[in-house]
């Protein structure tokens, strides 16, 4: 604005103001300068469209996502970005109502959204593991106090108290339940008492303090807390520890599964989806959030199709009710038992008939 005032004053005091034609031209020039100023001011004040990204809380302590927001704004300068932390239920509601455009969520949350509204996976979260190895898998770990000589196997959970952050925590409850199902320990409430603590840290402490006998937490979070010296690994015993996995070299008790996924609303323009996906892949493995939560950027989407089998097996929402199996499926899945029963029936029948003939 200052340059316009300067030019106007110069024109007003100059000799060009002496004649009427000159005054007219001067007026036109002033209007021209003012028009340019209005356009520049409007451009400067124009609000960029805001992209809202909802994320499930990764830790209980608040996380400053500003560096990631700024990075995305540099990569895609025509938009502003805001990352909003949610607990699972509010995140689902916000996505359903279209209050957020994208979401970083667990495989379980993704499945619910996919079934109820639909979405598109753009990327899979990666985390920094031992020796700065980039990991894109997650798993659960089942623990007890190191001095518990009565707890060594999964079957030892009977008549014990099990703690978990919550019923919808994927690595800390859904994957452990799937592991329990392999040992015929479901429904879990028929074998043990269950308490939900609200966080991974609280679950670990409940085990160490004796409030719970067994705890189920995210294997990566336990590893990170012990690696940072916040938990003494000598105080904890891992139950049902799996063989070392080259793609997930962290002690764990359950099957591994792809990490959090980054999803988009279906009504987001494809061009914007593409730009977001490219920007996510460009986030460097070492960034301001790496030391805080182990965040190491994103990779191309992993396969999440196995989640339905897990949920059906453990009868977790939306599969709480027993699944009806058709006669054909029943025969296919139990053909060996059916043949064995038929053979036994035939043998018994032959034996009875032979015995009757012998008596007569």
Polypeptide structure, described:
This protein is α/β, with parallel strands linked by helices and 360 residues long. Helices cover 42% and strands 18% of the residues. The chain contains 13 helices and 14 strands. Strands 1, 2, 3, 4, 5, 13 and 14 form a seven-stranded mixed sheet that branches. It has a five-stranded mixed sheet with strand order 9-8-10-7-11. The protein has a two-stranded antiparallel ribbon with strand order 6-12. The chain is elongated.
Question: What would the keywords be for this entry?
Answer:
single chain, 360 residues, alpha/beta, seven-stranded mixed β-sheet, five-stranded mixed β-sheet, 13 helices, 14 strands, disordered N terminus
Summary, kept brief:
By secondary structure, the protein is of the alpha/beta class.
């Amino acid at each position: 604005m200052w340059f316009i005032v300067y030019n106007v004053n110069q024109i007003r005091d100059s000799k060009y103001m002496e004649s009427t034609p000159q005054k007219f031209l001067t007026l036109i020039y002033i209007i021209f300068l003012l028009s340019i100023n209005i356009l520049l001011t409007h451009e400067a004040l124009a609000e960029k469209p805001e992209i809202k990204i909802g994320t499930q809380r990764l830790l209980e302590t608040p996380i400053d996502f500003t560096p990631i927001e700024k990075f995305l704004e540099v990569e895609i300068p025509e938009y502003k970005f805001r990352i909003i932390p949610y607990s699972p239920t509010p995140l689902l509601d916000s996505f359903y109502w279209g209050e957020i455009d994208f979401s970083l969520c667990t495989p379980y949350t993704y499945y619910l959204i996919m079934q109820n509204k639909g979405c598109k996976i753009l990327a899979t979260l990666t985390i920094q593991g031992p020796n700065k190895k980039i990991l894109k898998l997650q798993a659960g770990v089942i623990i007890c106090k190191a001095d518990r000589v009565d707890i060594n196997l999964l079957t030892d959970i009977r008549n014990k108290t099990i703690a978990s952050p919550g019923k919808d925590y994927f690595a800390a409850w859904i994957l452990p339940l799937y592991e329990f199902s392999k040992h015929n320990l479901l429904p879990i409430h028929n074998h043990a008492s269950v308490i939900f603590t609200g966080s991974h840290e609280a679950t670990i402490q409940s085990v160490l303090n004796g409030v719970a006998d067994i705890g189920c937490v995210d294997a990566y979070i336990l590893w990170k807390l012990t690696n940072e010296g916040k938990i003494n690994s000598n105080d904890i015993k891992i139950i049902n520890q799996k063989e070392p996995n080259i793609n997930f070299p962290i002690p764990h008790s359950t099957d591994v599964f792809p990490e959090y996924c980054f999803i988009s609303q279906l009504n987001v323009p494809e061009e914007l989806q593409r730009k977001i996906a490219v920007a996510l892949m460009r986030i460097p493995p070492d960034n301001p959030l790496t030391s805080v939560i182990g965040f190491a950027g994103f990779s191309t989407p992993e396969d999440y199709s196995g989640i339905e089998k897990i949920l059906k097996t453990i009868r977790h929402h939306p599969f709480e009710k027993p699944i009806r199996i058709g006669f054909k499926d029943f025969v296919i899945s139990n053909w060996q038992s059916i043949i064995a029963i038929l053979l036994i029936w035939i043998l018994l029948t032959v034996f009875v008939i032979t015995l009757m003939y012998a008596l007569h």
